[in-house]
């Protein structure tokens, strides 16, 4: 009680032996408490008064926290004996509540205290107690300092990059949410403007219809990625995941580093591809053919066409790539969080997993003293978190399924292009345009390198779902390395985990290691088919 009082200032405690020890006083104490902590020692369930307090806790629907002594000198109980000796109407308390071991060693005791605090916050305590937990994760950060209070596992660079690219994280203000909505509107508006280029065949801005179609179709795809990501972030599923399902401090610190590296890579790609795209398009839109259209007796709409498209491309390209990479980065973070929830289930097996993490615990090669009740609580927690894991996969799968459906459709054109070979084709009307305008050659290289359908963009988006296979492999490897002091329980543990598929399987998209070569072949066909078309033109030039 003294330790919890120090950790939870402002929270009142009622201890039967220090208050009114009468039956009326004990009933009043239980009735007016939010949580009832039952400290398990030898003979506790045989005590008449302890039985009454447990029954009152059930009657008044209180949050029960079971804490067990681990030192034999202070009455360490046998769980089996406690359950056997417990009256039938109270036995279910042991099945429905996690038993938290109490360690007297200061280093291990801190783990026990944390689990007690979480046991309160998860079930009954509400926001005040929840703020006391150091393991609650938050998306938004208020400081650029590396020490932001323990809860902000997402680096400030990640937060600012996603916000600038139109991804409003949970906890974002009204201005950020308004900007997020504006980005989606800008993307759709720009897609419509790009479509208008199909009907403007005059001037140096036109190269061919195919590249225009690529750009036009890419806009709703990126919009879909952004919309699905924001919808998931706003869902109660994410709030429950962050507040109640994750207690993996080691993995949280690692995720902070991963998000920082991922953000740097995404920002670098966004800037590089934007400058590359500006070099490919802006000289065309700001060409004198459009700017001097009035003096050359051309339609005045051409001036408006050049200025509108040029200025739009200055704004849209960073948002175009940034929104895509920010969405993919957020998809990665959501996958990491759902996997951390699965790892949190292992805390039910042993408190060692909470303090040092599953990787460090496995590396010690020491057997874990786990009983059937621990395994039962692990199974209950794992099933709940696995359902969240798969639910997030299904929600995030929509843009990937649409993307791969289009990739399958593009194979017919790619195969036709390959059938034409790689020899020069001087009769192609695009050849003369490339000879006349240097920026169209830059545009060709830009599409070869960054196209969302045939270039690096296609490979990044297409292979993202296959990253889930890493988590499935990691879970399998680490589970096999966990040693039990009871071999029979280890067999049950592994057999239980074998029944859960962690791979990305949605409709026709089965992103598994076994099917990876098939999907890679599809990407290769589309990429080489587009390259073949470019080589034929380039050789003619």
Automatic annotation (TrEMBL):
Q: Which domain of life is it from?
A: Eukaryota
Keywords from the UniProt entry: Membrane, Transmembrane, Transmembrane helix
Annotated TM spans: 153-169, 181-200, 212-233, 261-281, 301-334, 396-416, 452-473, 517-538
**InterPro entries in the record, alphabetically?**
Toll_tir_struct_dom_sf
Q: What is the recorded name of this protein?
A: TIR domain-containing protein
Organism of origin is Polarella glacialis
Q: What does the organism's lineage look like at the top?
A: Eukaryota, Sar, Alveolata, Dinophyceae, Suessiales
């Amino acid at each position: 009680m003294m330790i919890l009082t120090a950790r939870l200032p402002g929270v009142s405690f009622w201890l039967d032996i220090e208050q009114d020890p009468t039956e009326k006083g004990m009933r009043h104490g239980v009735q007016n408490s939010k949580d009832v902590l039952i400290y398990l020692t030898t003979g506790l369930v045989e005590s008449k008064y302890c039985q009454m307090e447990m029954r009152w806790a059930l009657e008044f629907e209180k949050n029960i926290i079971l804490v067990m002594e681990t030192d034999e000198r202070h009455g360490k109980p046998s769980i089996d004996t406690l359950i056997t000796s417990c009256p039938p109407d109270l036995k279910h308390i042991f099945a429905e509540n996690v038993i938290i071991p109490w360690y007297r060693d200061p280093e291990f005791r801190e783990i026990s205290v944390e689990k007690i605090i979480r046991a309160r916050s998860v079930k009954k305590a509400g926001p005040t107690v929840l703020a006391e937990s150091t393991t609650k994760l938050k998306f938004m950060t208020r400081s650029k300092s590396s020490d932001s209070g323990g809860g902000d596992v997402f680096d400030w660079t990640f937060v600012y990059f996603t916000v600038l690219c139109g991804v409003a994280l949970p906890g974002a203000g009204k201005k950020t949410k308004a900007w997020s909505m504006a980005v989606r509107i800008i993307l759709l508006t720009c897609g419509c403007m790009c479509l208008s280029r199909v009907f403007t065949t005059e001037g140096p801005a036109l190269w061919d219809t195919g590249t225009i179609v690529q750009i036009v179709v890419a806009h709703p795809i990126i919009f879909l990625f952004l919309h699905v990501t924001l919808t998931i972030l706003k869902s109660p599923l994410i709030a429950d995941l962050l507040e109640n399902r994750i207690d993996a401090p080691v993995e949280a610190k690692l995720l902070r580093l991963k998000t920082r590296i991922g953000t740097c890579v995404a920002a670098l790609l966004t800037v590089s591809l934007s400058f590359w795209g500006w070099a490919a398009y802006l000289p065309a839109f700001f060409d004198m053919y459009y700017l001097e259209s009035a003096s050359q007796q051309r339609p005045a709409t051409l001036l408006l066409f050049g200025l509108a498209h040029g200025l739009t491309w200055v704004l849209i390209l960073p948002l175009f790539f940034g929104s895509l990479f920010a969405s993919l980065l957020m998809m990665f973070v959501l996958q990491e969080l759902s996997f951390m929830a699965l790892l949190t289930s292992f805390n039910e097996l042993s408190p060692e997993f909470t303090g040092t993490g599953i990787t460090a615990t496995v590396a010690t090669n020491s057997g874990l003293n786990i009983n059937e009740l621990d395994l039962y609580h692990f199974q209950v927690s794992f099933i709940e978190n696995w359902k969240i894991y798969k639910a997030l996969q299904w929600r995030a799968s929509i843009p990937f399924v649409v993307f791969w459906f289009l990739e399958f459709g593009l194979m017919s054109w790619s195969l036709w292009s390959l059938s034409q070979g790689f020899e020069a084709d001087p009769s192609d009307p695009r050849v003369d345009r490339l000879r006349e305008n240097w920026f169209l050659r830059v545009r060709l290289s830009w599409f070869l390198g960054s196209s969302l359908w045939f270039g690096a963009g296609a490979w990044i988006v297409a292979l993202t779902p296959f990253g889930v296979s890493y988590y499935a492999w990691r879970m399998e490897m680490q589970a096999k390395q966990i040693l039990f002091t009871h071999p029979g329980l280890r067999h049950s543990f592994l057999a239980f985990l074998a029944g859960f598929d962690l791979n990305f399987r949605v409709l026709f998209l089965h992103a598994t290691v076994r099917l990876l070569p098939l999907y890679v072949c599809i990407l290769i066909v589309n990429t080489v088919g587009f390259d073949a078309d470019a080589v034929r033109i380039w050789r003619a030039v």
